[in-house]
């Protein structure tokens, strides 16, 4: 998600705080993903999570912060099926059309309830521009986040939906090659 290496410090989410019900979309693949007219370039899928270079406040996330990474991750698997395993990440790399300034981008992740807290919605504000790809993603960092089921990743700016993508989070055994690729070996 980086075009010019102005080392776009990109956003990776660490969980949420909002207590709303997650609007789980139907599993009809015909409308997944939905890409808005302002998006010029987009990729989505599964990547190996990176260590953050810093954290940024994000009060509407479970962790209260989001991770800022130095480099955009490589989408290793262009898929919407994601293993629920620590160190795995999933999301979107996107760029708006030339000459477009969408302003602040609200990113919303919905998911099944986290055990204990019941959190189903996480939100934060991000930026994107017309010169470099930006990362909008989630990485599994704690056991409580490893909730299987339908997750959505939605970005909106000034009332316009930029993208809306559903991911299906599955037990790691259902996606062994993905987990092995990020953990540097094979799962037994």
From TrEMBL:
Q: Which UniProt keywords apply?
A: Signal
Give the signal peptide, or none: 1-18
An example of a Pfam family matching this protein is DUF3859
Q: Write down the InterPro entries for this protein, in alphabetical order.
A: DUF3859
Superkingdom, according to UniProt? Bacteria
The family database entries (Gene3D superfamilies) matched by this protein are listed as:
2.60.40.2390
| Domain DUF3859 residues, every copy | 39-169
What is the official name of this protein in its record?
Answer: DUF3859 domain-containing protein
